[in-house]
Amino acid sequence: MIMETERLILRSFRETDRDVFASINADPEVMRYFPAPLSRELSDALMDKALAKEKSDGFCFAPIEEKATGDFLGFVGLSRPSYAKPLPCDPCVEVGWRLARSAWGKGYATEAARAWLRFGFVTLDLEEIVSFTTVINAPSRRVMKRLGMTYDPADDFLHPAVEQGHPLEPHVLYRLGRKDWVAQTGG
Fold first, then answer.
1. Its pTM surpasses 0.90
2. CB-count exposure of residue 13 (10 Å: 0-12, 13-18, 19+)
3. Which Pfam families has this protein been placed in (predicted)?
């Protein structure tokens, strides 16, 4: 799968992505809203899971690279969450992202996520796409708002994959329905 935006190429993972992907996942600052940075083994497992989901679902979180340089910037995409315990929005498709620090503050997450939203609503014919993060993740919450997603405190939840009582356990859920997306973008 390949999509393009004005500045980005959105594509499938390649074996050659493993080193740079692992360095992003090991960066404590990038991972500050997750329970811990990922080891190389866990990073490789995450990439393998993304590749398997892309094969089974036809989509998953996927790399973005800068057109001008070919630099791997991180990942953005859609995914069907799969946790041991259900989320309050299950079944659902989420849009999410994780970018290298060097890519922060340039609008890349929003640009790539908009392409994925279009793919979700037009190609996959989804009725709704969600996004969620820990309550304190203000940067991701700003991206969700820029995407036109809405937040209702009644949807707040405790993430089932985060240790009970951990400061990152409380999560917020943002939603975007197809009708709202069409109204905002013209479809």
1. yes
2. buried
3. Acetyltransf_3
d(CA 166, CA 145): 26
Helices assigned H by DSSP within the chain = 18-26, 40-57, 108-118, 138-146, 178-185
- 176: nearest Cα among 148, 152, 155: 148
Question: Quick one: angle between helices 40-57 and 18-26, nearest 10?
Answer: 120
Gap between the Cα atoms of 59 and 46, Å rounded: 14
What is the token pair recorded at 21?
A: 């992907």
Q: Could you say which DSSP state residue 183 is in?
A: H
Q: What is the C-alpha to C-alpha distance for residues 20 and 26, in angstroms, rounded to an integer? A: 10
Rounded-to-integer distance, Cα 75 and Cα 50, Å: 10
Domains recognised in the chain with CATH numbers = 2-185 (3.40.630.30)
Give the residue from 120, 93, 134, 92 showing the smallest Cα distance to 181.
120
* pLDDT tens-digit series, residues 115-135: 999 999 999 999 999 999 999
